[in-house]
Design a protein that fits this description.
This protein is α+β, with helices and mostly antiparallel strands and about 180 residues long. The protein has one domain: 60s Ribosomal Protein L30, Chain: A, CATH 3.30.1330.200. It has five helices and nine strands; from the N terminus they run E-E-E-E-E-H-H-H-E-H-E-E-E-H. The strands form two sheets. It has a five-stranded mixed beta sheet with strand order 2-5-4-6-7, covered by helices on one side. Strand 4 and strand 5 form a beta hairpin. It is globular, with a radius of gyration of 16 Å.
Length: about 180
C-alpha cells in the first residue's frame, strides 16, 4: 500500500460482519479461528469481506428463525449472503476474485482429541462452499497456531497479512 492510501477510508470488520463497497476502502480485521473471505470484482469496482465465526448454520435454526446479523456468524450463510449481494449487482462468478484467511488453532486445546477444531471446520466449510459456488481461491493462509491481522484494499485487491503471536509464545515470553 502506498501514500495514496491515506485518502482511502478504513473500515474495521468485527466478527460476524460483512461489508461490500463500490468505492475503494481498506477493510481491516483480526482473525483467530474465524475466517476472513475477501471478494473482488475489479472490472466492476466492487470489493467485499465477510468475517464469520462458526462453520455451518444448524438446520434447527434455519435462516428464517435467525436475524440476518446472527446468521452471518456462520461461514456457509455469510458466503451465500455475500454472493447474493454480488448477484444483485449483476456480477458474475467468473468476475470475482476470492482470497481466504484464518481458521487458526489459537486456543490451547488438548492434543488427545481427534475432532477437528473450529478453525479447521471454518476454513474447510469456506473452501467447500466457495467451490460449490464455482469460485476459485486465488490466495490463502489457513490454519496454524497464530491469529492473523489482515488489511484488504478493495481498490487494488492487495491483502496485507501479519501473523500475531500465539498464546503459547506469549506465555513463554512472560516467564
Amino acid at each position: 500500500m502506498d501514500d495514496s492510501d491515506i485518502l482511502v477510508p478504513e473500515i474495521y470488520v468485527q466478527p460476524g460482519e460483512l461489508h461490500l463497497s463500490r468505492e475503494p476502502v481498506i477493510f481491516r480485521t483480526v482473525l483467530g479461528s474465524c475466517v476472513g473471505v475477501t471478494f473482488l470484482a475489479p472490472q466492476r469496482g466492487v470489493g467485499a469481506i465477510c468475517h464469520p465465526m462458526l462453520p455451518v448454520m444448524p438446520h434447527r435454526h434455519g435462516a428464517h428463525k435467525l436475524s440476518v446479523a446472527h446468521a452471518r456468524r456462520y461461514v456457509d450463510y455469510a458466503i451465500h449472503d455475500m454472493l447474493g449481494q454480488f448477484d444483485a449487482l449483476s456480477v458474475h462468478r467468473e468476475e470475482i476474485q476470492v482470497k481466504l484467511f484464518g481458521g487458526g488453532d489459537v486456543l490451547l486445546v488438548s492434543n488427545e482429541t481427534t475432532r477437528p477444531t473450529v478453525g479447521r471446520m471454518n476454513y474447510e466449510t469456506a473452501l467447500r462452499v466457495l467451490s460449490e459456488e464455482g469460485l476459485e481461491v486465488s490466495a490463502q493462509s489457513l490454519g496454524g497456531l497464530t491469529g492473523l491481522s489482515i488489511q484488504f484494499h478493495t481498490g487494488t485487491g492487495e491483502v496485507l497479512l501479519r501473523r500475531l503471536n500465539s498464546m503459547e509464545q506469549s506465555l513463554k515470553k512472560r516467564k
